[in-house]
Amino acid sequence: QNMENDDLKNLLKSFFCNQEFTEQFYKAPAAIIHHHNYQGGLLDHSVEVLLICQRLCEIFPQLDRDLLFTGALLHDVGKIRTYDYDTVKIEMSTDSILLDHLYMSADMVNDHMKSLNFSEELSQKVLHLILSHHGPVSLGWGSTVNPKIPEAMALHHADNLDARVKEIIQK
Predict the structure, then answer these.
(1) Would you say residue 33 has pLDDT above 90?
(2) Which has the least CB within 10 A, 23, 136, 146, 152?
């Protein structure tokens, strides 16, 4: 609502004003075993990451708020394709066996950005946030690129903080 960047606002609308997407997003889990491993967990995780990012923007006003908030809401959208969750037990989908959720998230978001005629620079920044949100490649957590802009580092830590705290709370 309060976003200044119309391109990023339209990107979010292209997802969240789509009924089929929102039904899947609101129902999907964020994981099988670890954090937010229940139906609706993806929504909970994404909102919690957004709330952490809001606080980070208060502490670090230099951050591109619109970019970071977009990353917070879209970093895991590929998880709607990662799990089969219409059964009692959450299981990996066929797609996720071959392609990780980072790739699927980036692919989905890239398709939307192309249809909205995003600039190359903004597209690269959004994709960078998604592809680096698991932190430095050396950690072996799935990122394909190291976080190289402040918003990517902030998103990585917000995502990890939410996941680790929730994992302990759920035990």
Answers:
(1) no
(2) 23
Q: Which CATH architecture has domain 6-170?
A: Orthogonal Bundle (1.10)
12, 73 Cβ separation under 8 angstroms: yes
pLDDT at 96: 56
Query: What dihedral angle (degrees, nearest 10) is formed by the CA atoms of 49, 51, 57, 60?
Result: -70
Query: How many other C-beta atoms are found inside a 10 Å radius of the C-beta of residue 145?
Result: 14
How far is Cα 123 from Cα 102, in angstroms, rounded to an integer?
Answer: 15
Instruction: Report the SS3 class of residue 42.
Output: helix
Spatial distance between the Cα atoms of 60 and 25, rounded to a whole number of angstroms? 29
Q: What pTM does this model have?
A: 0.89
Closest CA relative to residue 132, chosen from 161, 96, 103? 103
